[in-house]
Every structure is written in structure tokens, then in C-alpha cells.
Amino acid sequence: MLRRFARGAPGPWRGDAVSMPNLLFVSPVVPAPTGGGSPMRAGMLLEALAEHHDIFLFVVPVLGMAPIEQTLPFASRWCRRIAVHFPKPAETTAPDPRDQPAGGEHHPKQIRERLGAEGAFPDPRQVFDEIRFETVHVFRVYMAPFAGAYLRMARADRPLCVLDLDDYESQARQRIADLLEAQGDQARSDRVRSESLRCRRLEEEYLPLFDRIYVCSEPDRAAISRRYGGGAVAVVPNAVRIPETQPGGRAAGPFTLLFFGTMNYEPNEDAAVFFCAEILPLLRQRAIRPFRVVIAGRRPTPRVMALASLPEVTVTGEVPEVGKYYRDADAVIVPLRAGGGTRIKILEACGYRRPVVSTRIGAEGLEVSPGRELLAADCAEEFAERCLFLMQEPEEARRLADRGFDWLQARHTLEAVKRALAACSKIPPETGAQAG
What we know:
alpha/beta, Rossmann fold, 2 domains, eight-stranded mixed beta sheet, six-stranded parallel beta sheet, 14 helices, globular
């Protein structure tokens, strides 16, 4: 089912008389200022691109979608038109048996890579009445088939084609599969490894066809350049909006450690369980003051919900507004042991001037110096020591948070995204991948 919204809405900074190049933005989520890493990155890119383009947004919400009245107001601000295609359940079923999860079950998150073959969904050229686009911007590799008609045009006739990978999807899924296998969960590991292979096939097929590729970190840029070649792989950083009102110091009460994330995402689920099983007992033995652990975020799995039985732990589920939880926290923990990209939860914590304790993989891709902008630890013993340090040294915790805030302002704001896009615009298309 195809629905169209926000026809003819000019950007808020200009009048109808101003005409700019048309850009088609293809996304699996409605871009938004909040609501998780994918909507937030898409939202930042959308707002930044709208400064120099008329945006036509085409969404296939395979990651799920909040009610229209909640998701569209922000996107409508920056778009000329919006079209949303709601796929039928049958359209997300994998035709290739190798892509079926172990045991024949369907992945609860509706495997994004199953979108599959070109031609199975509406052609954006017909959706937007044959409008000529100077640029086609695709968010996430599994949406690349929607741009297939443009990618296979003769170079002289086709628009500039840009793929925002966000993170290196096949590598991230491979890491998750390795983590699940190490935990003895072979069925889930096999399923995620199948997703990784599917992503790898999409990367191999489509990355060479794009003129420019964006990623969110330098390690991903280097890895993708080595594997796929080309000089047009560039870093466009993740970013967050700094709260208009900065929170003050915390009121009296238990020292609060906050972990935020979508809790049915395997690395977040593992991080919550790892912290409560291996780090929390050490804190319980050594803490010199009362403390609590708040695990906040939508879709908590049964394993995460079970953690609420621990006396220090609160599991909130989805929360209406994240700011309250950051303001009520004394420190933010990121005990991740797998995943990819860069962690918007760390950026959010820095924006709220909250000190962060993270594993090194949790902070991977962020140009931070452990001990300066955040504290880093990988084993349970070290992670507990870092948390205890923040409990015992409030002035040092405040200075750490201040340095994190300064770092965020310099590198991970909307202005930083605009600077990165401006630098990318100077890359000649012929230095990128070659069209078929």
C-alpha cells in the first residue's frame, strides 16, 4: 500500500519561488530527531541535505513505524513530498531458502535484507510522477535495490547516486553471530550469520555501482575502501541535537547508572545481561554508597525483563522522552561486546553532560581519548572500577562530562554533518565506483 503526504511543502527557510536541485531520499525509516539510531541519523542527513536540495522522501518502513502523526511532522518540514509504501507480510518473506532463519522461524525484526529483488516494490520514478532527480540518496545497503533503475542508467544520463551505509552491516552482523556462538546460542548465531552473508552479497553487488558511499566512522571507511576500492568512501559522522537546557547536578539519592538502547538488538541485550551478571556483583561488594541501574529502551526481551528481579535494577521498556532519564542519571554505561557503527547513546550522554563508561568496542569509531572524554574498560573488573571511580570522585566525573560535551560540540552536531557533506560534494563522481 502506497500513501503520499506533505505535497509541495517548501523548506522553512525559503519561499516557494526558490528552486534547488531535486534529491530522492530512499529510507527504511521516517527520519526523526529521536527514536533510535537509524531515524536519528536519517533525520540529521535529511535536514543537512535540505539546505541545498528539494527533498522527495520515499520510505519503506521495514523496521516498523510509529503512528504517522508522530513520525511525519519533522520529515515534512524538510521535504517537498513524502511517499510511504507499507509492504504486505508476504513481501518480506525470503524466496531463497539460504536466507531462512534456523528452524524455519522468521526473524522477529522482519529481516531487512529480504526485501530482495528489484521490481518487487514501487519504482520511485513512478511514485514521484517522473520527476527528474539530480541526486539519489539511499540510506542503508538493503534499500539499494530501490535505486536499481537509476544505478543502471548510462552515466551521462543518471543522477549522482549516493549510498549512506551508516555502519558496515555485514561486518556488524558477523560480530554479533560470533558473540552468540561464543554464548552457545548456535541457532541465533546461524540466523545472524545468514543475515551477514545476505548483507555481504548486497554490498558486493551494489557498492561498486554508487558514486559516493558514506559511513559514520574512519574504521568503517578504511575497511570498506580496502575491500571494495574506490576513493569516494567518506565519513559523515553521527550527530545529536544538544539539549536547549543543560541539566544541572543530580539531586540526592542513589547513584544512578543508565543504559539506553533498543533492547531486542542482540548487542544491547547481551550488554545488559553482561553488566548485571558480571559487573553488578562487583559493584554490590565494593560500592561505598547506594546505587541503582536503570535499563531503558523499547522492546526488552525476556532475558532483559528478567533482570528487573535484581534489587538494584529497573527495566523501563519504551520511554516517552529520553531527556528525563539522562537528567536523572549520574553516569551512562555502554557495556557492549559486539555491533558496528558509532553509538548514538554515547553522543546523547555527552550532550546531557553525563560521564560515560564504555567498552572499547562500544566507543569504536569515535575519536575519543579514554580517560579524557570517557572512561574505557573491557573486562568486568575494570568496568566496575571505572563505575566506582565515578561514584567516589564527583568532581572528576564532572570534568570528564565537560570534556565529553566539548568534544561533542566540535565533532558530532548538525554543523559537523553539514561540513562533512560539503567536503564530500567536492569529490568528483568519476573517482567513485563505476556504473555497470
